[in-house]
Amino acid sequence: MDEIQLIKGCKENKPKAQKELYETYARKMMAVCLRYTNDRESAQDLLQDGFIKVFTAIGTYSGNGSFEGWMRKIFVNTALEYLRKNDILRETVDIDSPDTLKEPDYSALEKISADELMELVRELPTGFRTVFNMFAIEGYSHKEIAEALGINESTSRSQFTRAKKLLQKKLEPFR
């Protein structure tokens, strides 16, 4: 089935289409879930919850824009709901002026794989990791992040700056 047929089948609640949609996107959406939580079991729960939401809301997908992007937004929001519900984001701290960063040294990035880099991102504290994922990977603005997480825009900027600083420190052994 092509993507249009797959979406149509899911809108009609056809199990075969739902299964194929799951098999097509589960791996990518699991990667999204793992970026927001460090533990595989929680990520699998988020994956299940996310697909339930996708199948429930698929009738609202208008066909405008990328279907995968539409799904990704559902999974990011599902992960954020989980983090808020479990009060995991309480570690974020309001800071008016973000720390300054020295000029980044990208040489370490040439020496590690994407998987190793994502593992370093997963090791970040939850607040840092969440803002880093939303800004650097998902492309949200600091204003959108602040609204989604219920924090100040300056806090979002600070958390991102601190995440980059911590990642730079974690990359030092690879230089």
Automatic annotation (TrEMBL):
GO terms for molecular function: DNA binding; sigma factor activity. InterPro entries: RNA_pol_sigma-70-like, RNA_pol_sigma-70_dom, RNA_pol_sigma70_r2, RNA_pol_sigma70_r4_t2, RNA_pol_sigma_r2, RNA_pol_sigma_r3/r4-like, WH-like_DNA-bd_sf. GO terms for cellular component: DNA-directed RNA polymerase complex. It comes from the Bacteria. Signal peptide: none annotated. Keywords: DNA-directed RNA polymerase, Sigma factor, Transcription, Transcription regulation. Pfam families: Sigma70_r2, Sigma70_r4_2. One of its GO terms (biological process) is DNA-templated transcription initiation. Residues 21-87 form the RNA polymerase sigma-70 region domain. Residues 115-167 form the RNA polymerase sigma factor 70 region 4 type domain. Belongs to the sigma-70 factor family. ECF subfamily. This is DNA-directed RNA polymerase sigma-70 factor. The lineage of its organism: Bacteria, Pseudomonadati, Bacteroidota, Bacteroidia, Bacteroidales.
